[in-house]
Amino acid sequence: STGNLIHGEPWLRRALYPFPRDGTRDIFIDGVVARNRALNGDIVVVRLLPREQWKVIKPDGSDKETEATHESDVPEDMLGTRVPREAAKGDARSPDVIIEAQFDDNDAEHGQDHLQDTLAHDIKKLSLDTAEKEEVPKVSDPRLLPDKFLQRTAKVVYILEKKHSRAATGFIKLLADKNSELFKKCAMFSPVDHRVPRAYVSLADCPSDFVARPEDYSNMLFICRIVDWKEDSNFASGQLAKSLGQAGEIEPETEGILTEYGVDFSDFSPEALECLPQSLPWVISPGEMAKRRDLRNFIYTLQKAASDLHYLPGAVISGKAGGAVPKSRLFRFVLTPPCFFSTDLNPMRDRLTFSVMWKVTPEGKILDEWFGRTVICSCAKLSYDHAQSMIENPGKVFSPEELPPVSPQHSVAEIQQAVLNLHRIAQHLRKQRFIDGALRLDQLKLSFTLDQESGMPQGCYIYQYRDSNKLVEEFMLLANMAVAHQIYRSFPEQALLRRHPPPQSKLLNDLMEFCHQVGLEIDFSSAGSLHKSLNETFGADKYSEARKEVLTNMFSRPMQMALYFCTGVLKDETLFRHYALNVPFYTHFTSPIRRYADVIVHRLLSASLGISSPIKMEKEAIQRQAEHCNDRKMASKRVQELSTDLFFAVFVRECGPLESEAMVMGVLNEAFDVLVLKFGVQKRIYCNALPLLGFHFQKVGRKPELTLMWEPERPEEESVSQEITIFTLVEVVLKSEGVPLKYSALLKRPSTEK
Predict the structure, then answer these.
(1) From start to end of 452-600, where are the E strands?
(2) What's the pTM value of the predicted model, to 2 decimals?
């Protein structure tokens, strides 16, 4: 069998390998020997072990062997679950998971991708452990057990492709045996991520005074690259690349994250810069202008913030007669990603773009479609806040001071009316999209305000997804779908599309069982039915909203990852579908300045229109590029998640303790998981960390329940009892600990007031 190696419990140095792809239970690789020097993400070949060596799955709700460190590979077109950097340090008492909405304002395929490496049984332990499990039959030989009680085990026999960067951040220390010859030559590198092996590094690569003053470097982060790992050794050989700085500080931690995930943040090479125009200011030549459709009459750009490098769509609004629709009620608009030389999209400057243009009715019915290369001159550069203000105040007369500079050829009133027109059309498009069966799972997304001088987080808040976001999302989805159809029609063997497989069947069945047990009527038959159930089941009160957030998180877990692929390598067209969007064809066209997949799609679109020469790449070569894009998207998303974890941990350290309401997501024997509603993070709370006289775990019907008996605050008071079960609302405190970037959640004592 072949597939990606993914990790389980890092402190036991275990790993899981997800095979087969039909949603059944993963294959378990137990220990560093069975892992055979493979690292997380590697594509490996495994040999199944005999049935008598398969793992017996324990059905109880025990906290033991369930605390995996979950590494996200969530792309931005879904919303994801992510872990704090602290959890990768191998502390068996802190398998915390942080939850963040991965809404990307430039790429809104909002269903939900699941962490492909989340353990199937861990998911049930973390949140779905409510069933009266069938007892494992008592037999002396595991081979006699039914398959449902067994998990296959295997050993890695070959690494097909090393996906892991073989770089890690960590600490150096002297070897324990001072009398050994190795002590005189090497130090021990201990990675922060315990899935990476410890490594011997040469003392010659260490700081000159390290041997004399090792304590000076006890909190110093280093980058180490694994250069060798012998088959018969638990330790690798490494080479120290550089010293980063003190652990827990933003700059060294950020550089470590980027290096570990192979993100090149160095300056562009002279060779690359030579490809840019050398004479500035750059202007569009008359020859180039003649090849393009002139859209400079009325274009405005809309983007998240002035510093946001992501391109968001320009729009053309104009009346045009057509058919029986009155001239005043027919609109024409265009979405235009910029070319490389045009990334700033500053107003009142000519810029090159590649456009999709539609003629639509006010109800969003598309009457005509056009693709082509264009030139624009934006009359205003609006932020989301500007557009949102116009949408919320349609009758307001905006003064020039309330908006960015506007071209003298156009008025603020014109721009405001254009925004309102687009908003109304987007509302119709969105309504129809969900009628047609799309799914969107909105999780809480944490955003930060930073000190302008130090760059330190000084505030955080849940990002608000508003009508201006939805406006942009609808037109981007529309453009991406339109381009997908165009390039697939033209190049059925070479089109680069994006597919989203349906949820993993086993995890989905677990979730269906859970909903049934807690009395929730959720229809899982399709993406659309799931969306409808989630949005129509709950009320608008605080408790209902919190419960919806918890379930949104749970519903994300069976969802698989969206992938780029070349159409020529998949013969079954039904596999092209995008589950969350519920459409047959989808791709990425709208962000070529930050995603290489979009560049390939632009080239395919250009060739399909006869603008450029035909694509000469074979389907196998395009598939290799698609796989590389998948790898880098996974890495970039993981870096984004870890960066958020880093900033939040620093924020807790600098501004904590932090208090918030939380809702219980899962109950175990000696702990329970909560979703911290104010910050969108998930934490595990341990009973033995609370001032309790005792606690008791039981099943009430089919639901797990913990009863906590709090110590009296004063001798004359009685003990306070507190029941903890799924969906219980509690008050928690997030508090920084002594270890860098580590924080814990503590349950606040319940009030005794009647």
Answers:
(1) 457-462, 496-499, 563-566
(2) 0.83
